[in-house]
Every structure is written in C-alpha cells, then in structure tokens.
Amino acid sequence: MKVGVLTGGGDCPGLNAVIRAVVRKGHQEYGCEFVGFKDGWRGAVEGRTVPLDIPAVRGILPRGGTILGSSRTNPFKTENGVRDIRDNLAKYEVDALIAIGGEDTLGVAARLHEEYGIPCVGVPKTIDNDLSATDYTFGFDTAVGIATEAIDRLHTTAESHMRVLVVEVMGRHAGWIALHSGLAGGANVILIPEQRFDVDQVCAWVTSRFKASYAPIVVVAEGAMPKDGDMVLKDGTKDSFGHVRLSGVGEWLAKEIEERTGKEARTTVLGHIQRGGTPSAFDRWLATRFGLHAIDAVHEGDFGKMVALKGTDIIRVPIADATAKLKTVDPALYTEVGVFFG
Ligand code: F6P
Questions:
Q1: I need a surface site. Which of 43, 89, 135, 246 has the fewest CB within 10 A?
Q2: Cα(207)–Cα(202) distance, rounded to whole angstroms?
Q3: Domain spanning 143-276: which superfamily?
Q4: Is the beta carbon of 223 within 6 A of some atom in ligand 1?
Q5: pLDDT digits (tens, 9 = 90+) for 130-188
C-alpha cells in the first residue's frame, strides 16, 4: 500500500513526530510505502512530492516545523484543485492520504472523502486547541509552555519598572492559550475571545494590582474583543480560507490602559514564537500516538476518520465531527479563574 502524507495550515511543534510515527509503524508493521506532498494541499494540487522513507524521518522527533512544509492553500478555491489532486494521487499511485492539520486542512480532507471518495485519515494539530472531538491537539502544550515562560519573565521586568505589561497571545477565536498560560503564569487579567471585555473593568483590576504594590500582567488573546466595539486588527487581510489575520488588540489595549489609568503600559506580542521550536514531551507523546493510530486506521481501511484524544485513549471520530464546530472555552471555566484577576 502507498500512503501520501501532508501537513497543512499553520505549522506547530509535533508535526514531525506524527510523520515519523506514521512512517516507522507503516513501514515496519504493514510494509507500506510513503510519499510526502510538499506544502500541504498545494503540493497535492501541483504534484510536488518528497521521498518519505525511514532515513527521511530519522532524527526528526524533537524538531519543530515540518519536514514536508506547509501552506494555507484551499484546493476548493483553486482552479481545478480537486481534479488535480485526484490526478496526482493516481500519478503517484497513492492508495490513501493522511492529512495532518487543523480546522481548514481537515475540512478539506472531510470533503474530499465525502464528496469524491478519496480515502483520507485526519490527524488534529493546532496550537489553538480549538478542534472539537479531541480533548487536546498536539502543539498546544508547547505553545502554552512558551507563553507561560514569557509571562514569568515579564513579571520580573514589570516589577522593576512598576509598569503594566500586556501580553498578546495567539489562539484565533478560542481563548485556550490565553487561559492556560495566563493561569500558569499568574497573570492578573486574562482576556479571551469567548467573553467580550470591559476596558474600565480591566483598568480597575490594573489599579488594584498597583495598590497591592505589584505590577500587573494582562494576558489578552489575539481574538479578544472589547464590549463596545469591533475586533481590533492591525491589518484586515484574509488567508485563502477567508480567515482574517488577527493581532493588534494588545497594542490597542495598552494605549487604553495608559490613557485611563495614567500608568505606563507596554505590549509584547508573542506571535509565531509560540509555534516555533522543539515540541514539549507531552506534544511528542501525543503526536507520536496520533501517528501510530492514524496508520492503523489506514491499514484497516477506516477512512473519513480522524484520530482523537479522549482521556488517555486514542479513538477515531468522523473528520467532520472535528471541524463542524469550534471548541471554545466554557464560560464556567473562565469564571473559575476569575478569582485571580486584579
Ligand atoms: O492557527 C494557528 C495560528 O497560529 C493562530 O493562532 C493564528 O491566528 C494564525 O495561526 C496565524 O497564522 P499565520 O501564521 O498564517 O499568520
């Protein structure tokens, strides 16, 4: 059996661990051959491949990024995209495809399987942790670790200057990174997209923190929105899946805090640092197990499925279940951490 593998969407730590596990088990236990499609769906559309054998995956477990490259190409928005994918799968004699990606990449895999009968298995990745049907996506734990370390560091410099430090983290329309890193890093305010925030309330928390002789750290998710107003964006450009590129709320909020409280406020935008570098041990563990179970699904011909984490078990769910609805932060969970605000 020949299996195609691709990684799509924003990269994240652990992609290489999945690829390695798929190839190692597929080759050793099932005698599979592999071909890697370069740069996500773009490589499948354009027929650009890389050899994927045991030597190609040696030593890649701790490496960030993806040896296959990635892109946000949407074949359904590319002229003859689906036809070209089918032609290329035939050309390279690919019997099944493993798509490692988030909402967009897996949404394409689900449609290719449902509408065109292309045998696909999905693996959930994203630092945002916003995919339904899985308790966690790999990449999230590493991103939270990086953001938490940044918050720890910002505490000490904020204290030295007694200024407000606003930290903008990624996560798109889900507040998971902000919530987990903000709690772990002891932030005084955490703002998430799921709950619009009141700038006056934020300023009250900031002021009360100064009264206790500490400098406040405000963690704001890039998708968080003020109560009265629109999403704050540095630039409103969109990617090929139609998503607006987020970022800008951190800068805006620091200015508002400074004007309203008279305290100096600065912003750190963590940006792609949260996606780069070596995966945490948890992400290597999760990504590896996802890879092992994905090749099992291929071997058993269980297509249209995505591997998912439920408790400590890896299960299979329809890919469409993971992409139908964003997994966002429950209001009760947000309320729970509110005891630390101010
Ligand atoms: O989905 C992962 C993510 O890092 C989001 O948190 C962020 O909004 C987006 O990707 C950034 O995308 P890009 O790297 O294309 O700018």
A1: 135
A2: 9
A3: Phosphofructokinase domain (3.40.50.460)
A4: no
A5: 999 999 999 999 999 999 999 999 999 999 999 999 999 999 999 999 999 999 999 99
